[in-house]
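hey all, quick one before standup. I had two proteins in the batch that finished overnight and I want to keep them in one place so we stop losing track of which output belongs to which input. First protein below, input sequence then C-alpha cells straight from the run.
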Amino acid sequence: MKRKAQDIIYAAVGEAHVEDQCNKRRDPLLKLYYGRPLYINHNEDVAGCVANGAICEFRGVKLKPAVSQKDFETIIIDGYHVNCVSITQVDSLLVNMLDGCKGGNKETIIELSPKVIYASAKFPVPFTGPITKNSLRTRRRISFEQFPVNCANARTVHKLQGRSIHHLVVSAWDYTDNWVYVCLSRCTTMNGLFLREPLNPSKTKGMAEEVRAFIKSLRKIKKRAHVFLHGEDL
C-alpha cells in the first residue's frame, strides 16, 4: 500500500517521547536538501575520518532496487513540486565529506546506511488507538532505524574541538574557562571569522590552572624523553 506523506509524519515517534541508551532524545524527522550541512554522529570509518563529529554535505539518496518513479508522491513545498518517497524506500544517504581527511580537498561522495537504535518510548508504538494520559505513562522498549547524521547548520564549540574551519560565524559567547580560545582557534584565517556580537575582553578568562599544569608536565616528559633517546644523562 502506498503511504502518504501525512501517514509517515503521523507514524513518527515524537522526539519528546523517545530516549536512547544514553538518555539522549532522538529527533525522528530529518529535513534534508541539497547541500545541507550535516555531521556524522556514529563512527563509520575512523581511519577515513568518517567518524563521530565529522562534517559532510547532503547530496542525495540511493533508493532501494525495487523502488521506481511510480512510487514517488508529488507534493507542493514553497510553491515547488517535490517528489517524495517513504524513508522505508531509501537504501542510503549520499553525502560529501568536507573535513578534507578522506579524499583531500576533492569532492568525496560516500554512502551512509541507517543504524538500528534501541530506545525506550513513553507510549505504545505503533499507534493502535488514541493517545491518552494513561498511555503516556507506559514505557516500551523499541528499536528503529535512523541515519547516523544530524543537521549541522549550527554547532557547539564542543563539536568543533580538534577541527580546522575556513569560515566560522560565532553567534554567542561563553566566557567559561578556555571556551573563547577553543572557539577562535578553530578558524584558519581572520578573514573567515565573523562575530555576531563583539568579544568582551574583560570577561575573557585565561587558561585554567589545571590545563597549565598538565601542559607543563607534558613538556617535562618530552624533555626527559629527548634526553633519554639521545643517550644523555638525566
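OK second protein, same deal, sequence then C-alpha cells:
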Amino acid sequence: MKKLLFLASLIAVFSCEPAKEKADLLVLNANIYTVNDAFEKAEALAVKDGKFIAIGSTSDLQDRYEANEVIEAEGKTLIPGFIDAHCHFYGLGLNQLKVDLVGTKSYEEVLQLVKDFQEANPSNFIQGRGWDQNDWEVKEFPTKEALDELFPDTPVALERVDGHAYLVNQKALDLAGITATTRVSGGEIIKKDGKITGVLVDRPMGMIDAVIPALTKQMQIKALKDAEEICLDYGLTTVNDAGLMRGTIELIDSLQQSNELSIRVYAMVSNAPDNLDHFLDKGIVKTDQLNVRSVKVYGDGALGSRGAALRAPYSDQPGHFGAMITPVADIEALAMRIAASDYQMNTHAIGDSANIVVLRAYKNALKDKIDRRWKVEHAQVISEEDFDYFEEGIIPSIQPTHATSDM
C-alpha cells in the first residue's frame, strides 16, 4: 500500500510540471552577442520556423524548451548574421560562370587567364570580370588587338571590376553592330586615332549585353545558389541586391518559397519600364525572406572607368567630365513617379555632378513627404556646399571598400 502511495505521489509531482515548448533548434553554452539596444550577452537561444523565439541562460532554456536539434557550442562565439546594404547578389553568382580576373597585375595575365579558361570551359561567347588597369604597371585601358588575335571567331566580353566598362574583341563588336560611327549617349565608345579600342564605358555596354546568349533557367538557379553559398560562408544572411529584373526577383521568391534558397533578399527593382509598371502597380512585396520596396536608378558611371560625372575634368584626362547614364530630366521624372508610390528610390551617384542632380531631384519630389528613406548609392564625391541636402531625410549609402577601390 505504501509503495502504491509513493508511486502515486511521484506521478502527481511530474504531472504538475509544465510541458516544455517545442523548438526546432537549441544552442547551448555559447558566447552570444545579441547586439540589442543594451548589447546584452547570453548563453543559449531557441529557434522555431527560422526565427529566434528566446535567448537566455542555458539552464533556463533547457527547462523551457525541447528541440529536434541541440547544438552544444562549448563556449564558441555566436553573433547575428551580417547584412550587406549594397551588393549584386545575383551578379556574384553569374560571375562564377565567367573568367575571374580580379587581382590581375597585367594585361598579359588577363589574356593568359582567358585563354586557359576557354581551353578548360569551351564557350561560344567568352565572358570575364574583374580586371582593373589601375593595378597594372601600365595604368592605361587595354586595347583589343591581342584578343582579336587569340579569338578571331569567338566573341569576348571582359567586364571591368566596377561593372562600368567592357573590353571586347572585334567579333563581339561585329555581333553588336558597333562601328567607329556608332553613337550612344550616357557613356563612351573609346577610340584611338579614330579606331575603336575595344573599351566600352557604361551605356554602350548594353549593346554587347543584347547579343550575349540568354541563360537557361537552370543556369540562373545555379547562379543564385552559388551566390548564397558564398554569402553564407562569410556570415551574410541578408543581402540588398542593387538592381534586379522582375524575372530574377520572381525566381528568387519561388526558390525561397520551396526552401531551395534560405538567404534573405532586399531586392531593388531595376528601373526598366516593364519592371516599374509591374511593381509600382503591384505595390510593396514582403515575405519573411523577400522585401521588394525600392527602385534602383543609375545616375552616372564610376571613377575607375572614368564614367562618374564630375564638375571638373579628370586630372589624367583633360576635357573629360564623365557622363550621366540616365538623363537629368528622366531622373526628375522618375523621382516624381516613385514619390507617388510607397517605394524608395535608390540612385547610383558617384561624381559630384551626378550627386547634385540626384539630391535636387529627391528634395523636389519629397516635399511634404516624411521619412521615405530614399538613398544615394555610393555618394563618393560630393561638394561641401551640397551636404545640407542630407538634412532632408536623404540617406547617403556609402560602401567604404567601393569608395577606396574606385579610383
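Flagging for whoever picks this up: The chain has three domains: 21-80, 99-210, 217-406. The first helix runs from residue 2 to 16.
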